[in-house]
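Attaching the record inline, Q. Sequence:
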Amino acid sequence: MDSDFLADLVEAVVADGGIDSVMVVRNGYAVLQTVVYPFPEDTSHIVHSCAKSITATLIGIAIDRGLLAGVEVPVMEILADKAPETADQLKASMTVEDLLTMATGLDCRDSYVHDYEGMVEMQSSADWTEYVLTLPMAAKPGTRFEYCNGSSLLLSAILSKVTGQRASEFATEVLFEPLGITDFTWPADPEGVTIGWGELMLQPADMAKFGLLYLRNGEWDGGQLVPPEWVDAATTSQIDAGTLSDGYGYQWWIDDDGWFMAQGFGGQHIIVIPDKDLVVTYTAALVGEQMSTPQTLTADYVMPAVFSDTPLAPDLDAQARLAAALETARSGPETVVTALPEMAATIDGVRYDFRPNDSGNTWFIIRFGDGSATLSSEDAGGISDLEIGLNGRYAGDATMPVVLRGEWRDDSTFTVEFRVIGQIERGTLDFSFDDGVAEVTSYDAAAGTTERIIADRAD
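Structure, as predicted:
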Protein backbone atom coordinates (compact mmCIF):
# COMPACT_ATOMS: atom_id res chain seq x y z
CA MET A 1 0.00 0.00 0.00
CA ASP A 2 1.14 3.52 -0.78
CA SER A 3 2.32 5.42 2.31
CA ASP A 4 1.44 8.82 0.86
CA PHE A 5 -2.24 7.90 0.59
CA LEU A 6 -2.15 6.45 4.11
CA ALA A 7 -0.56 9.67 5.39
CA ASP A 8 -3.37 11.57 3.65
CA LEU A 9 -5.84 9.32 5.48
CA VAL A 10 -4.32 9.99 8.89
CA GLU A 11 -4.13 13.75 8.26
CA ALA A 12 -7.76 13.77 7.15
CA VAL A 13 -8.79 11.80 10.24
CA VAL A 14 -7.00 14.29 12.51
CA ALA A 15 -8.53 17.25 10.69
CA ASP A 16 -12.02 15.76 11.00
CA GLY A 17 -11.91 16.03 14.77
CA GLY A 18 -14.50 13.36 15.55
CA ILE A 19 -12.68 10.09 14.85
CA ASP A 20 -11.06 8.23 17.75
CA SER A 21 -9.22 5.44 15.93
CA VAL A 22 -8.56 3.96 12.52
CA MET A 23 -7.05 0.62 11.55
CA VAL A 24 -6.26 -0.83 8.12
CA VAL A 25 -5.60 -4.54 7.67
CA ARG A 26 -4.38 -5.76 4.24
CA ASN A 27 -3.63 -9.37 3.36
CA GLY A 28 -3.97 -10.23 7.04
CA TYR A 29 -1.43 -7.65 8.24
CA ALA A 30 -2.01 -4.47 10.20
CA VAL A 31 -0.77 -1.84 7.76
CA LEU A 32 -1.94 1.13 9.80
CA GLN A 33 -3.22 1.34 13.35
CA THR A 34 -3.62 4.47 15.39
CA VAL A 35 -5.72 6.13 18.03
CA VAL A 36 -6.46 9.83 17.67
CA TYR A 37 -5.88 12.30 20.50
CA PRO A 38 -7.39 12.48 23.08
CA PHE A 39 -8.50 8.82 22.79
CA PRO A 40 -5.77 6.78 24.56
CA GLU A 41 -4.08 3.53 23.52
CA ASP A 42 -5.44 0.19 24.78
CA THR A 43 -8.88 1.58 25.58
CA SER A 44 -12.25 0.08 24.76
CA HIS A 45 -14.77 2.04 22.71
CA ILE A 46 -18.53 1.75 22.36
CA VAL A 47 -19.36 0.10 19.01
CA HIS A 48 -23.13 0.58 19.18
CA SER A 49 -24.89 -1.27 16.35
CA CYS A 50 -21.74 -3.06 15.19
CA ALA A 51 -22.84 -5.41 17.98
CA LYS A 52 -25.76 -6.51 15.79
CA SER A 53 -23.37 -8.21 13.36
CA ILE A 54 -21.85 -10.13 16.28
CA THR A 55 -25.26 -11.14 17.64
CA ALA A 56 -26.22 -12.45 14.21
CA THR A 57 -22.94 -14.35 13.98
CA LEU A 58 -23.74 -16.10 17.27
CA ILE A 59 -27.04 -17.26 15.75
CA GLY A 60 -25.08 -18.82 12.88
CA ILE A 61 -22.76 -20.58 15.32
CA ALA A 62 -25.72 -21.84 17.36
CA ILE A 63 -27.27 -23.31 14.20
CA ASP A 64 -23.97 -24.92 13.23
CA ARG A 65 -23.75 -26.54 16.67
CA GLY A 66 -27.26 -27.94 16.43
CA LEU A 67 -28.61 -25.71 19.18
CA LEU A 68 -31.06 -24.02 16.82
CA ALA A 69 -32.77 -25.84 13.96
CA GLY A 70 -32.35 -23.04 11.42
CA VAL A 71 -33.32 -19.54 10.38
CA GLU A 72 -36.76 -20.69 9.28
CA VAL A 73 -37.88 -21.52 12.85
CA PRO A 74 -40.79 -19.33 14.03
CA VAL A 75 -39.78 -16.90 16.76
CA MET A 76 -42.95 -17.55 18.77
CA GLU A 77 -42.10 -21.23 19.08
CA ILE A 78 -38.70 -20.49 20.63
CA LEU A 79 -39.87 -17.69 22.90
CA ALA A 80 -43.26 -19.19 23.70
CA ASP A 81 -42.99 -18.25 27.39
CA LYS A 82 -42.66 -14.59 26.43
CA ALA A 83 -45.17 -14.61 23.57
CA PRO A 84 -48.61 -13.04 23.97
CA GLU A 85 -51.40 -15.48 24.78
CA THR A 86 -53.01 -14.74 21.46
CA ALA A 87 -50.87 -14.01 18.42
CA ASP A 88 -52.31 -13.36 14.99
CA GLN A 89 -51.19 -15.43 12.03
CA LEU A 90 -48.78 -12.74 10.81
CA LYS A 91 -46.91 -12.64 14.09
CA ALA A 92 -46.93 -16.42 14.38
CA SER A 93 -45.24 -16.64 10.98
CA MET A 94 -42.32 -14.39 11.96
CA THR A 95 -39.07 -16.37 11.72
CA VAL A 96 -35.51 -16.04 12.98
CA GLU A 97 -34.53 -14.97 9.45
CA ASP A 98 -37.04 -12.13 9.63
CA LEU A 99 -35.24 -10.88 12.74
CA LEU A 100 -31.86 -11.19 11.03
CA THR A 101 -32.99 -9.15 8.03
CA MET A 102 -34.96 -6.51 9.98
CA ALA A 103 -38.14 -7.64 8.22
CA THR A 104 -40.22 -8.63 11.25
CA GLY A 105 -43.37 -6.83 10.20
CA LEU A 106 -43.61 -5.43 13.73
CA ASP A 107 -44.65 -1.83 14.22
CA CYS A 108 -41.25 -1.15 15.74
CA ARG A 109 -40.49 2.49 16.54
CA ASP A 110 -37.21 2.21 18.41
CA SER A 111 -34.82 3.75 15.86
CA TYR A 112 -33.73 7.31 15.11
CA VAL A 113 -36.43 7.48 12.41
CA HIS A 114 -38.99 7.61 15.24
CA ASP A 115 -36.80 9.61 17.66
CA TYR A 116 -36.35 6.36 19.63
CA GLU A 117 -39.93 6.53 20.88
CA GLY A 118 -40.18 2.75 21.05
CA MET A 119 -36.77 2.45 22.71
CA VAL A 120 -37.92 4.64 25.59
CA GLU A 121 -41.10 2.61 25.94
CA MET A 122 -39.24 -0.70 25.84
CA GLN A 123 -36.69 0.34 28.44
CA SER A 124 -39.50 1.57 30.68
CA SER A 125 -41.29 -1.79 30.47
CA ALA A 126 -40.99 -4.63 32.99
CA ASP A 127 -39.77 -7.14 30.39
CA TRP A 128 -38.06 -5.89 27.22
CA THR A 129 -38.39 -9.16 25.29
CA GLU A 130 -42.07 -9.40 26.09
CA TYR A 131 -42.54 -5.77 25.07
CA VAL A 132 -41.10 -6.40 21.59
CA LEU A 133 -43.10 -9.57 21.09
CA THR A 134 -46.36 -7.81 21.93
CA LEU A 135 -45.85 -4.98 19.43
CA PRO A 136 -48.63 -4.78 16.84
CA MET A 137 -47.99 -5.97 13.30
CA ALA A 138 -47.60 -3.41 10.52
CA ALA A 139 -46.72 -5.72 7.61
CA LYS A 140 -46.30 -9.34 6.64
CA PRO A 141 -42.97 -10.67 7.98
CA GLY A 142 -40.25 -10.90 5.36
CA THR A 143 -41.76 -8.32 3.03
CA ARG A 144 -40.48 -4.96 4.28
CA PHE A 145 -37.23 -3.70 5.82
CA GLU A 146 -37.75 -1.68 9.00
CA TYR A 147 -34.70 -1.00 11.14
CA CYS A 148 -35.58 -2.30 14.59
CA ASN A 149 -33.27 -2.61 17.59
CA GLY A 150 -35.83 -4.93 19.14
CA SER A 151 -35.10 -7.48 16.41
CA SER A 152 -31.56 -7.86 17.72
CA LEU A 153 -32.80 -8.08 21.30
CA LEU A 154 -35.04 -10.99 20.28
CA LEU A 155 -32.06 -12.69 18.63
CA SER A 156 -30.20 -12.36 21.92
CA ALA A 157 -33.20 -13.75 23.82
CA ILE A 158 -33.25 -16.70 21.41
CA LEU A 159 -29.56 -17.32 22.09
CA SER A 160 -30.27 -17.37 25.82
CA LYS A 161 -33.07 -19.86 25.29
CA VAL A 162 -31.22 -22.31 23.03
CA THR A 163 -27.77 -22.12 24.67
CA GLY A 164 -28.74 -21.75 28.33
CA GLN A 165 -26.33 -18.81 28.54
CA ARG A 166 -26.43 -15.10 28.07
CA ALA A 167 -25.37 -14.14 24.55
CA SER A 168 -22.31 -12.42 26.04
CA GLU A 169 -21.29 -15.67 27.75
CA PHE A 170 -21.86 -17.71 24.60
CA ALA A 171 -19.86 -15.12 22.65
CA THR A 172 -16.97 -15.41 25.09
CA GLU A 173 -16.85 -19.18 24.65
CA VAL A 174 -17.35 -19.58 20.91
CA LEU A 175 -16.11 -16.29 19.44
CA PHE A 176 -14.26 -13.85 21.67
CA GLU A 177 -11.82 -16.23 23.37
CA PRO A 178 -10.87 -17.98 20.09
CA LEU A 179 -10.23 -14.54 18.56
CA GLY A 180 -8.17 -13.45 21.56
CA ILE A 181 -10.71 -10.81 22.59
CA THR A 182 -10.53 -10.39 26.36
CA ASP A 183 -11.24 -6.70 26.97
CA PHE A 184 -14.95 -6.18 26.40
CA THR A 185 -18.15 -5.33 28.22
CA TRP A 186 -21.63 -6.22 26.99
CA PRO A 187 -24.46 -5.38 29.42
CA ALA A 188 -27.77 -7.16 29.79
CA ASP A 189 -31.32 -5.90 30.25
CA PRO A 190 -33.14 -6.23 33.61
CA GLU A 191 -34.16 -9.80 32.71
CA GLY A 192 -30.57 -10.83 32.01
CA VAL A 193 -30.82 -10.77 28.21
CA THR A 194 -27.67 -9.38 26.61
CA ILE A 195 -28.42 -6.14 24.78
CA GLY A 196 -28.00 -7.63 21.33
CA TRP A 197 -28.46 -4.39 19.43
CA GLY A 198 -25.58 -2.51 21.06
CA GLU A 199 -23.94 -1.33 24.30
CA LEU A 200 -20.90 -3.51 23.48
CA MET A 201 -17.47 -2.02 24.13
CA LEU A 202 -14.43 -3.38 22.28
CA GLN A 203 -10.88 -2.35 21.61
CA PRO A 204 -10.44 -1.12 18.00
CA ALA A 205 -8.01 -3.93 17.16
CA ASP A 206 -10.61 -6.48 18.26
CA MET A 207 -13.13 -4.96 15.85
CA ALA A 208 -10.60 -5.62 13.10
CA LYS A 209 -10.27 -9.25 14.21
CA PHE A 210 -14.00 -9.73 13.76
CA GLY A 211 -13.86 -8.17 10.29
CA LEU A 212 -10.88 -10.35 9.36
CA LEU A 213 -12.79 -13.43 10.52
CA TYR A 214 -15.46 -12.66 7.94
CA LEU A 215 -12.88 -11.78 5.30
CA ARG A 216 -11.44 -15.28 5.86
CA ASN A 217 -14.87 -16.91 5.46
CA GLY A 218 -15.19 -17.71 9.16
CA GLU A 219 -11.78 -19.36 9.52
CA TRP A 220 -9.39 -18.40 12.31
CA ASP A 221 -6.04 -19.85 13.31
CA GLY A 222 -6.66 -23.05 11.35
CA GLY A 223 -10.16 -23.62 12.72
CA GLN A 224 -13.62 -22.84 11.38
CA LEU A 225 -15.32 -20.57 13.92
CA VAL A 226 -18.21 -19.56 11.68
CA PRO A 227 -19.58 -21.78 8.89
CA PRO A 228 -18.60 -20.40 5.46
CA GLU A 229 -22.21 -20.86 4.34
CA TRP A 230 -23.29 -18.50 7.10
CA VAL A 231 -20.67 -15.91 6.18
CA ASP A 232 -21.90 -16.02 2.58
CA ALA A 233 -25.56 -15.67 3.55
CA ALA A 234 -24.89 -12.99 6.14
CA THR A 235 -22.92 -10.81 3.73
CA THR A 236 -25.25 -11.23 0.76
CA SER A 237 -28.11 -8.78 0.33
CA GLN A 238 -31.23 -10.50 1.63
CA ILE A 239 -33.59 -7.53 1.46
CA ASP A 240 -33.83 -4.05 -0.04
CA ALA A 241 -32.92 -1.53 2.67
CA GLY A 242 -34.26 1.45 0.73
CA THR A 243 -32.17 4.62 0.87
CA LEU A 244 -30.13 3.41 3.84
CA SER A 245 -27.95 1.00 1.87
CA ASP A 246 -27.69 -1.02 -1.33
CA GLY A 247 -28.89 -3.99 0.69
CA TYR A 248 -29.03 -5.72 4.05
CA GLY A 249 -27.86 -9.20 4.92
CA TYR A 250 -27.94 -10.88 8.32
CA GLN A 251 -27.34 -7.70 10.34
CA TRP A 252 -24.61 -6.59 7.91
CA TRP A 253 -24.95 -3.63 5.53
CA ILE A 254 -24.21 -4.54 1.90
CA ASP A 255 -22.72 -2.24 -0.75
CA ASP A 256 -23.00 -2.89 -4.49
CA ASP A 257 -19.27 -2.17 -4.85
CA GLY A 258 -18.51 -5.40 -3.01
CA TRP A 259 -18.12 -4.00 0.50
CA PHE A 260 -20.02 -5.22 3.52
CA MET A 261 -20.09 -3.32 6.79
CA ALA A 262 -21.00 -3.39 10.43
CA GLN A 263 -22.04 0.13 11.38
CA GLY A 264 -22.80 1.76 14.71
CA PHE A 265 -24.26 5.08 15.75
CA GLY A 266 -21.68 7.85 15.98
CA GLY A 267 -19.56 6.54 13.10
CA GLN A 268 -18.41 3.12 14.37
CA HIS A 269 -17.45 1.00 11.34
CA ILE A 270 -16.07 -2.41 10.44
CA ILE A 271 -15.64 -2.29 6.66
CA VAL A 272 -14.72 -5.47 4.80
CA ILE A 273 -13.64 -5.28 1.14
CA PRO A 274 -12.95 -8.84 -0.07
CA ASP A 275 -11.59 -8.09 -3.56
CA LYS A 276 -8.87 -5.90 -2.01
CA ASP A 277 -8.28 -8.24 0.97
CA LEU A 278 -9.01 -5.26 3.21
CA VAL A 279 -10.52 -4.65 6.61
CA VAL A 280 -10.85 -1.05 7.77
CA THR A 281 -12.20 -0.09 11.18
CA TYR A 282 -13.09 3.22 12.78
CA THR A 283 -14.30 4.30 16.19
CA ALA A 284 -15.69 7.79 16.43
CA ALA A 285 -17.90 10.43 18.01
CA LEU A 286 -19.46 11.75 14.82
CA VAL A 287 -22.87 13.37 14.52
CA GLY A 288 -25.50 13.76 11.82
CA GLU A 289 -24.33 13.32 8.26
CA GLN A 290 -20.74 13.03 9.51
CA MET A 291 -21.49 9.46 10.60
CA SER A 292 -20.76 8.24 7.05
CA THR A 293 -17.35 9.97 7.03
CA PRO A 294 -15.49 6.65 7.55
CA GLN A 295 -16.92 5.32 4.28
CA THR A 296 -15.82 8.47 2.46
CA LEU A 297 -12.34 8.28 3.96
CA THR A 298 -12.06 4.63 2.94
CA ALA A 299 -13.09 5.40 -0.64
CA ASP A 300 -10.89 8.51 -0.93
CA TYR A 301 -7.70 7.32 0.73
CA VAL A 302 -7.63 3.61 1.60
CA MET A 303 -8.81 2.23 -1.72
CA PRO A 304 -6.39 4.38 -3.80
CA ALA A 305 -3.55 3.27 -1.48
CA VAL A 306 -3.93 -0.30 -2.74
CA PHE A 307 -1.42 -0.50 -5.56
CA SER A 308 -0.32 -4.12 -5.68
CA ASP A 309 -0.68 -7.61 -4.23
CA THR A 310 3.08 -7.68 -3.68
CA PRO A 311 5.29 -5.35 -1.61
CA LEU A 312 6.03 -1.93 -3.11
CA ALA A 313 9.51 -0.49 -3.38
CA PRO A 314 10.35 1.51 -0.24
CA ASP A 315 9.51 5.21 -0.42
CA LEU A 316 11.45 6.67 2.49
CA ASP A 317 9.99 10.16 2.17
CA ALA A 318 6.42 8.86 2.18
CA GLN A 319 7.14 6.55 5.09
CA ALA A 320 8.62 9.44 7.07
CA ARG A 321 5.55 11.55 6.29
CA LEU A 322 3.25 8.73 7.45
CA ALA A 323 5.26 8.28 10.65
CA ALA A 324 4.99 12.01 11.38
CA ALA A 325 1.24 11.97 10.72
CA LEU A 326 0.79 9.02 13.08
CA GLU A 327 2.79 10.75 15.81
CA THR A 328 0.62 13.86 15.50
CA ALA A 329 -2.55 11.76 15.59
CA ARG A 330 -1.53 10.02 18.80
CA SER A 331 0.04 12.92 20.67
CA GLY A 332 -2.28 15.72 19.58
CA PRO A 333 -1.48 19.35 18.87
CA GLU A 334 1.51 21.13 20.28
CA THR A 335 0.98 23.28 23.33
CA VAL A 336 0.50 26.90 22.34
CA VAL A 337 0.58 29.28 25.28
CA THR A 338 -1.80 32.20 24.88
CA ALA A 339 -2.29 35.15 27.21
CA LEU A 340 -5.51 35.28 29.20
CA PRO A 341 -7.80 38.29 28.67
CA GLU A 342 -8.53 40.74 31.47
CA MET A 343 -11.90 39.07 31.99
CA ALA A 344 -10.15 35.91 33.21
CA ALA A 345 -8.75 37.76 36.21
CA THR A 346 -12.12 39.44 36.81
CA ILE A 347 -14.06 36.18 37.10
CA ASP A 348 -11.27 33.98 38.50
CA GLY A 349 -12.54 32.21 41.64
CA VAL A 350 -15.83 34.09 41.64
CA ARG A 351 -19.03 32.21 42.35
CA TYR A 352 -21.94 32.62 39.96
CA ASP A 353 -25.42 31.50 41.05
CA PHE A 354 -27.73 30.13 38.39
CA ARG A 355 -31.21 31.44 38.05
CA PRO A 356 -33.99 28.77 38.28
CA ASN A 357 -33.54 26.18 35.53
CA ASP A 358 -34.83 22.75 34.50
CA SER A 359 -31.41 21.09 34.77
CA GLY A 360 -30.97 21.64 38.49
CA ASN A 361 -27.78 23.67 38.11
CA THR A 362 -27.08 25.75 41.24
CA TRP A 363 -23.74 27.55 40.90
CA PHE A 364 -20.32 27.47 39.24
CA ILE A 365 -16.82 28.79 39.83
CA ILE A 366 -13.93 28.88 37.35
CA ARG A 367 -10.37 29.12 38.63
CA PHE A 368 -7.42 29.68 36.32
CA GLY A 369 -3.98 28.20 36.92
CA ASP A 370 -0.78 27.59 35.01
CA GLY A 371 -1.80 25.75 31.83
CA SER A 372 -5.16 24.61 33.17
CA ALA A 373 -8.37 25.75 34.81
CA THR A 374 -10.83 24.16 37.21
CA LEU A 375 -14.59 24.24 36.83
CA SER A 376 -16.40 23.69 40.11
CA SER A 377 -20.18 23.41 40.00
CA GLU A 378 -23.22 22.02 41.73
CA ASP A 379 -26.28 20.41 40.17
CA ALA A 380 -28.82 17.77 41.15
CA GLY A 381 -26.04 15.18 41.20
CA GLY A 382 -23.92 17.09 43.70
CA ILE A 383 -20.70 19.08 43.56
CA SER A 384 -18.04 18.35 40.94
CA ASP A 385 -14.58 19.71 40.18
CA LEU A 386 -13.34 19.27 36.61
CA GLU A 387 -9.90 20.15 35.30
CA ILE A 388 -9.86 22.00 31.99
CA GLY A 389 -6.76 21.98 29.83
CA LEU A 390 -5.65 25.23 28.26
CA ASN A 391 -3.32 26.05 25.38
CA GLY A 392 -4.93 23.51 23.03
CA ARG A 393 -4.53 20.47 25.29
CA TYR A 394 -7.15 18.36 27.06
CA ALA A 395 -7.12 17.64 30.77
CA GLY A 396 -9.25 15.15 32.63
CA ASP A 397 -10.14 13.80 36.04
CA ALA A 398 -8.77 10.29 36.59
CA THR A 399 -12.06 9.29 38.26
CA MET A 400 -14.14 10.21 35.20
CA PRO A 401 -13.82 9.29 31.53
CA VAL A 402 -14.32 12.91 30.48
CA VAL A 403 -11.63 15.22 29.14
CA LEU A 404 -11.96 18.98 28.69
CA ARG A 405 -10.07 21.82 27.12
CA GLY A 406 -10.88 25.51 27.06
CA GLU A 407 -10.02 28.67 25.25
CA TRP A 408 -11.10 32.29 25.30
CA ARG A 409 -13.00 32.70 22.05
CA ASP A 410 -13.03 36.45 22.56
CA ASP A 411 -12.40 38.85 25.43
CA SER A 412 -15.60 37.87 27.25
CA THR A 413 -16.40 34.27 26.19
CA PHE A 414 -14.67 31.18 27.59
CA THR A 415 -15.49 28.02 25.63
CA VAL A 416 -14.99 24.56 27.11
CA GLU A 417 -14.96 21.54 24.78
CA PHE A 418 -15.64 18.15 26.37
CA ARG A 419 -15.28 14.56 25.19
CA VAL A 420 -16.30 11.35 26.94
CA ILE A 421 -13.55 8.80 26.30
CA GLY A 422 -14.76 5.69 24.52
CA GLN A 423 -18.26 7.08 24.00
CA ILE A 424 -19.89 9.35 21.42
CA GLU A 425 -20.83 12.10 23.87
CA ARG A 426 -19.11 15.41 23.20
CA GLY A 427 -20.02 19.07 23.08
CA THR A 428 -19.24 22.55 24.36
CA LEU A 429 -19.97 24.89 27.24
CA ASP A 430 -19.82 28.61 26.43
CA PHE A 431 -19.45 30.98 29.39
CA SER A 432 -20.17 34.56 28.28
CA PHE A 433 -19.56 37.24 30.92
CA ASP A 434 -20.98 40.76 30.93
CA ASP A 435 -21.35 43.16 33.86
CA GLY A 436 -21.87 40.61 36.65
CA VAL A 437 -24.02 38.27 34.57
CA ALA A 438 -22.94 35.03 32.91
CA GLU A 439 -24.82 33.29 30.14
CA VAL A 440 -23.92 29.59 29.98
CA THR A 441 -24.77 27.79 26.75
CA SER A 442 -24.37 24.02 26.68
CA TYR A 443 -24.34 22.15 23.39
CA ASP A 444 -24.61 18.36 23.29
CA ALA A 445 -23.41 17.36 19.83
CA ALA A 446 -24.49 13.72 20.14
CA ALA A 447 -28.06 14.67 21.05
CA GLY A 448 -28.11 17.83 18.95
CA THR A 449 -29.51 19.89 21.84
CA THR A 450 -28.68 23.36 23.14
CA GLU A 451 -29.55 24.89 26.51
CA ARG A 452 -28.95 28.43 27.81
CA ILE A 453 -28.94 29.34 31.49
CA ILE A 454 -28.29 32.69 33.14
CA ALA A 455 -26.16 33.06 36.29
CA ASP A 456 -25.50 36.10 38.49
CA ARG A 457 -22.25 37.03 40.21
CA ALA A 458 -22.68 36.17 43.90
CA ASP A 459 -20.34 38.72 45.50
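Residues 59 and 388 are 46 Å apart (CA to CA). The mean pLDDT is 95.

More tomorrow.
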